[in-house]
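Colleagues,

Please find the record for the two-part complex below.
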Amino acid sequence: MTAAIEVEGISKVFRLFRERPSSIKQRLLSGRMRAEDFWALRDIAFEVEEGSSLGLIGHNGSGKTTLLKCIAGILRPTSGVIRYRGRVAALLELGAGFHPELTGRENVYLNASFLGLSRKDTDRVFDDIVGFAELEDFMDNQVKFYSSGMLVRLGFAVAVHVDPDILLIDEVLAVGDEAFQAKCLNRIQRFQAEGRTIVLVTHALDTVREVCDRAVMLDHGRIHALGLPDDVVREMRYVLLGVTDPGFVPEEGTREAEIASVELIRASGRGDGPVLRDDPLTIQIDVRTNEPVADLDVDFAIMDGATNHPIVADRTSTHGIQIARFDGKKRARFQIPAFPYAAGKYWVTIGLSSRENGHLYHVQTQRYLFEVIEVPRVQEPIDIAVQAEVEDL
Amino acid sequence: MNVTERTSESLRLHPGRRIRELFAHREILLNLVRKELKVKYTASVLGAIWSILNPIVFLAVFTFVVKILGNATPHYPVFLLSGLLAWNLFSVAVGNGTRSVIDNGNLVKKVAFPREILPLSVVGVALVDFVLQSAVLLLFMLVSGYGFHLAALVLYPLSFVTLMVFTTALVFWVSALNVRYRDVQHLIGLALLVWFWMTPIVYPAGLVQDKLTDAGAPWSPHLWTLYLLNPLTPIVSGFQRALYWVVTPVVDGQPVAVLPQVSVAWLVGVIGAVLLGSLVLLLGAWRLFFRLSADFAEEL
């Protein structure tokens, strides 16, 4: 597979002026202008495979649209390189160039030319556009007589008839009623089936999970998370809402034995609050059986929230603990004497399985979360083998 | 598939390649011109007739006024319009072109397309008006039996091309600068007013030539040269020579100085030089516009 879009180390700095000097006089009087640098994007790098779809998510002001504009060529990055193969169409606004005094028909041709369609192309798809917008009876009316819903439909109808290799879509799906949105989603899936590459900026996290192959989450101009949509969206929900979302946790297993509760016990002995770096951490798992089980193996894995890479994993059986046939409740504890990883969020996966045949009783994938913070502390003097020497020069 | 690369480097203008790019986007240019014309005359009953009405009223008023008040210049309406239409093309394009980028801020911020199209569309609109109004003038000359002088008519295409190149160069320049310094649009308004009276449009250039060269002072011929340094003077004189063509019409047995007393060949040479200079200016202005246009979306 080749990359349709390569983004290498893109940064974008906006100069923010308290009051922008827009005349020569102001510029002369103010001498050196007071401007602040605002880093809208910092060192962004990722690739989009040909024919795949990437979701760009992040809270307002995280730099999603700036990034899209850099890829589209509307903004010039401050540093870095963007490379892409083929023709690009950027849908940053529906109905770009629409003029209220022109008729629907004239606006379709005007708008289509901005999206890279020739007159001939537009002639060919014109009926489709009108049909899609459901505005057959209004094409010869001036659009100033259109309702806002009609305008949006017309703008979208033109937009979905573009014919690029790469499609950049900003937030335009978030318009129209539910039926229309379903139609738009449908259309995007058709674009995917046709093998086009799509970059989608949206706040609709469910759309990302439904449509995209990969997702990137931006936060204050940096990549906060990058990976499979489910993982990135979960991270996004956590950042946005500050909660883990149980509805999101894939659970599997046959539930002969199940996870009754899990506690991540911090150094303070409590089950909540931040974990300091190098603090001890205990993962305490209460197990309950619904029917007697022949044997049990309890395991856990900790994933780095930023990369979704497993960093610690262990199971009771590797410690020689054999849990024989039982019915009732048991408590397992994994004690990490000092959690050595850097500040960040960590997700914990818990599993119950059979040691004998690997049968899964119950697995909760990345259901539990703790956050590591770094606190500056006084450095204690320690013995370091220092060597000394003197030589003549 | 061709690979496109975007970096922080400001791109160098390669005119040939850029013209091909602009040609690929010609649809936008045509649609924008069409839109401007439509919007200008929409919801008006007479539509484009208004555009034609302008020179018709001029012709009527001046024919009438000259009849009553008398005027030293015979066939004054033909003289006036042959220069005025060229000036209108220039001043409308430059005046409206100054704001062409900032007036389309929303497009610039949301759509990627060659930014040159915005000032070019303004030139295009002015050109359409010029063609319509010129048709009226030609019709008037045919109907009134004014007559044409074929040898002088050669100047028409040359003057026209020079006017277009010069106008486009200036529009590129001022529209790009106006994005950063809004002073430009005010300055242009004043400059056009002064420029209009520095150019022989309502008054005959021959009169200026007479006054300056006969003044007797040793430096007055240089003043005439200085007067000709205004690039619009040779261009407008070219249009007048092509259409009005009578250099010194005879009124009541007396020759009247109307057009500059120079040969057609001399005018061809001077306008040719202006054309060359305008081409150099166009290249420079285009280069500036191209370089600044990379950041238009940010500046607006």
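Chain A touches chain B through 43 residues (CB under 8 Å).

Comments are welcome before we finalize the supplementary table.
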